[in-house]
Design brief:
Blueprint: H1 7-20, E1 24-29, E2 40-47, E3 52-58, E4 63-66, E5 74-75, E6 85-91, E7 94-102, E8 107-112, E9 114-118, E10 125-131, E11 137-143, E12 147-155, E13 159-165, E14 170-175, E15 177-179, E16 184-193, E17 196-204, E18 211-219, E19 226-227, E20 233-234, E21 240-242, E22 245-254, E23 259-268, E24 281-284, E25 292-296, E26 300-303, E27 312-317, E28 321-330, E29 336-343, E30 345-349, E31 361-368, E32 373-379, E33 383-391, E34 395-407, E35 410-421, E36 425-433, E37 436-443, E38 451-457, H2 463-468, E39 470-472, H3 482-486, E40 495-497, E41 501-506, E42 520-524, E43 529-531, E44 536-539, E45 543-551, E46 558-566, E47 573-583, E48 592-593, E49 609-615, E50 620-622, E51 627-630, E52 634-642, E53 648-656
Parallel strand pairs: 9-11, 19-22, 30-32, 40-46, 47-53
Antiparallel strand pairs: 1-8, 2-3, 2-8, 3-4, 4-5, 6-7, 10-18, 11-17, 12-16, 12-18, 13-14, 13-17, 15-16, 20-29, 21-22, 22-28, 23-27, 23-29, 24-28, 25-26, 31-38, 32-37, 33-36, 33-38, 34-35, 34-37, 39-41, 41-44, 42-45, 43-44, 45-46, 48-51, 49-52, 50-51, 52-53
Length: 657
């Protein structure tokens, strides 16, 4: 039994204790206070003749808890403003009321606690508090994410730190150590902490010491908070309670440049009524601004925010760099929560297997029903196309379909259209696409209708024109390849010996787009040959290959040439250059850059030969890159053994005068 004590006397004693513990903003009320915030704690108490009783308010649950002597913590089941509190207890798992009633006024007391809020993204911060002589300071640390944290305490005098969990069970007792470099007493604590509340009780070891204690705290590592491509990021234990919701802020560093990427939020919960709602995740830049999900100059745009019933979306990330994913979920229990971002589907288009097929087409969207769908396409050659998009039926909203590529300003729209209502087909004709990367897809498929997209190639010349208008080394009035110059090859013939070249020409009898090779893009069907931008074919290995020439001004005009590559079955032989290379010798010039010409050899690439030098009157050297050095004026002979065709040796005369 206690001596009679009034509720006002209890208030004064509690206030004194709170001040001694370093709490601030201590206020009391005779009715429930309305000014609670995240840093404010609320207790209440009342007395009877021989006892007093406390309750603690949980602002998150909006309920009161108390602890009768000898029992577990209980939730108060009656209205706190009733005429009297009936003492409750719990014995062997059975709750019961006792014969003690608290009948005084109820006093509500609020105070601000010194605390640290720790989460995945907590940067280094410092809290400075004063510790009185012979008194303790209590600091609360709210940990919202399971991870490593660092706490560094410093003071001018020796001190102790005692750490407790939320049940006030002791976790450790440490004494500070003197740091002679900083001339302070210091204690560093780093540990992996699980979500919950922790408390640090700090006091000076000498009862007469007093003064400030500084606490510097931070999150140590970024475990499960940085988003990596094609990796499921588990954020189940990294949710922060914020305004009646659960919140996480993921960091994404995009190192892959501008492109579309797919983002997915995957929630597993026992709540059968759970639905993905609008604004449960969005993508932000480093300034905290929501970026565009897509933006086209024709006023097609939308922010990167998920819609109702949508847990995934495709977003255009405009550049490499850091972005953030803001996730907000309802405050319920979750079995797991994962967030991922991945590359989008990829395909390529070329003519090699369909050179003669006028009906050649590529299905880019194959009856997809996703909310968003984008296909990344690599176009290998110039081409003219018709684009055809169809949906499975009538729709009552705008389904945006598009074809675009990327330039320095972002998305460069080639075609954008809305399909709506009974209009379930969209066609765009004669699109000229140059080689490069494109994106084709749709957004906002709210009803998940099936979408089919096809790209048709358009050809304006018929098969005979395609097959006969292009030829090798037409006659001596055209430039012609080394197969004719050095290997007894005949004009207008498509057979090439390994290591030699032929030159492409066009016959104006077939009404070709142009007679000039610079107006075409040339492509080889395989690695048996290579083709230069000027139309020179180099034979690489024996077999057959096809050359395609696409007229740039009208890519619907495509020309085809089949060639045969043969092994060199002749004897070892020498090729003597028909020209002499002259250089002006000067003692002040240390090196000269040698260049090969078509007239010198089967193929003019210096590194395709192993070079030796023959000379009588001067010293000379040459690197594999053609950099020459000579001791004086004179004449040398360069002798090149041809790697591509070991039966060929090239001789070139070089004069320094």
């Amino acid at each position: 039994m206690l001596e009679t004590i009034t509720v006002e006397e209890v208030r004064k004693k509690v206030t004194y204790d709170l001040i001694a513990l370093g709490f601030s903003n201590i206020n009391y009320y005779y009715s429930f206070p309305s000014n609670l915030d995240d840093n404010t704690r609320l207790i209440c108490f009342r007395t009877c003749n021989t006892d007093y009783h406390f309750m603690k308010y949980d602002n998150r649950e909006k309920t009161w808890y108390h602890k009768p002597g000898g029992s577990a913590i209980l939730k108060y089941i009656s209205s706190i403003e009733n005429s009297g509190w009936i003492s409750e207890g719990s014995i062997n798992g059975v709750e019961l009321s006792e014969n003690k009633t608290y009948f005084s006024d109820v006093i509500y007391l609020t105070y601000s606690i010194s605390n640290t809020n720790m989460s995945c993204h907590t940067l280094e911060s410092t809290l400075v508090k004063n510790v009185s002589a012979s008194k303790d300071l209590l600091i609360e640390s709210n940990v919202y994410c399971d991870r490593n944290y660092s706490y560094t305490f410093t003071a001018s005098s020796n001190f102790e730190v005692h750490m407790y969990d939320e049940n006030m069970d002791i976790l450790f007792d440490y004494e500070s150590e003197y740091n002679s470099d900083k001339s302070v007493y210091e204690l560093l604590y780093i540990d992996y902490l699980f979500s919950g509340k922790y408390y640090f009780r700090i006091n000076y070891t000498n009862s007469s010491s007093y003064g400030n204690v500084s606490l510097t705290y931070k999150a140590v590592s970024n475990t499960c908070t940085s988003l990596h491509i094609n990796y499921d990021c588990d954020i189940t234990n990294h949710l922060h309670y914020d305004d009646c919701s659960l919140h996480n802020y993921l960091q994404l560093y995009n190192s892959y440049g501008p492109s579309f990427y797919k983002f997915v939020l995957d929630v597993d919960t026992d709540d059968e009524d759970f639905q993905y709602l609008e604004n449960q995740f969005c993508i932000k830049d480093t300034n905290g601004n929501i970026i565009d999900k897509y933006y086209f100059d024709s006023d097609y745009n939308k922010e990167a925010i998920n819609d109702d019933l949508q847990n995934e979306m495709i977003v255009f990330i405009p550049s490499s760099g850091t972005y953030y994913i803001d996730i907000v979920l309802p405050d319920i229990d979750y079995n797991s929560i994962y967030f991922t971002y991945t590359n989008i589907d990829y395909s390529s288009i070329d003519f090699y297997d369909n050179a003669f097929d006028i009906e050649f087409s590529r299905r880019l969207i194959d009856f997809e029903t996703d909310y968003d769908y984008v296909n990344k396409i690599e176009i290998a050659q110039y081409g003219t196309y018709d684009l055809d998009v169809r949906v499975s039926g009538s729709i009552g909203y705008n389904l945006t379909v598009f074809l675009c590529n990327i330039n320095n300003n972002g998305l460069n729209e080639i075609y954008v259209d809305d399909i709506i209502g009974s209009h379930n087909i969209s066609t765009y004709s004669n699109i000229v696409l140059s080689p490069g990367i494109y994106y084709f897809g749709y957004f906002n498929n709210e009803a998940n209708v099936a979408v089919n997209g096809r790209l048709f190639r358009v050809l304006s010349n018929d098969n005979p024109n395609m097959l006969t208008a292009m030829m090798c080394d037409p006659d001596s009035s055209y430039p012609y390849g080394s197969e004719v110059r050095f290997n007894n090859g005949s004009f207008n013939n498509s057979t090439i010996t390994i290591g030699f070249t032929r030159f492409i020409g066009f016959d104006d009898l077939y009404g070709v787009g142009s007679l000039y090779n610079v107006d075409y893009d040339f492509y080889a069907s395989n690695n048996k040959i290579s083709v230069s931008s000027y139309g020179t074919i180099l034979a690489e290995s024996a077999g057959s290959a096809t050359v395609y020439a696409i007229y740039r001004n009208d890519p619907s005009k495509v020309y085809v040439l089949n060639v045969t590559i043969i092994n060199d079955n002749g004897n070892n032989r020498s090729i003597y250059s028909s020209i002499t290379h002259y250089y002006d010798y000067s003692s002040s010039i240390s090196t000269y850059q040698f260049e090969l010409y078509d007239e010198d050899c089967p193929y003019p690439a210096i590194m395709d030969y192993s070079w030796t030098i023959s000379t009588n009157n001067i010293n000379a050297t040459m690197s594999i890159y053609g950099t020459m050095s000579v001791s004086g004026p004179g004449t040398i002979t360069l002798i090149g053994s041809y790697y591509r065709n070991p039966k060929i040796t090239v001789y070139i005369t070089v004069v320094f005068e």
